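Section 5.1 Outputs to date
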Amino acid sequence: MLPNEVADALEAIRCLKARYFRGVDGKDAALLRSVFTDDAVTDFRSESPDGDASLLQRDPDAFVRNTLAVLDGTVTVHSASMPEIELLSADEARGRWTLHDRIWVIDAARCPLPFRSLQGWGYYHDRYRRGAQGWRIAATRLERLKVLVD
């Protein structure tokens, strides 16, 4: 890849991850679904103390549906920084992002979460693939380092 192509790819992946978080925080199902490949794998087993196997999904539609259902009745703020993005080819990349997120339950009647608020830190480990629609997330895994709940 030429230097300008590398720079364009890196910026497109950074914007893709920003759209992912905007989709989550804005509870925007269409936007959130648009960032994934059709065969994307999502691994959020670190969200469960027992590594709940149901949090490893190979269906991005189910991931979006389940994520937004769990976050119903919440306000969330996700912030990712310090991306380490490696282009593996012209159409494949992997990345690691530092995460800080906050979740506030504002309507406990609608929200199934067992806390009033959460503050978390960790890493996202992603795989990206470029297709006809541009760069998309092909796989994502959340690694939690620390969680504080009220």
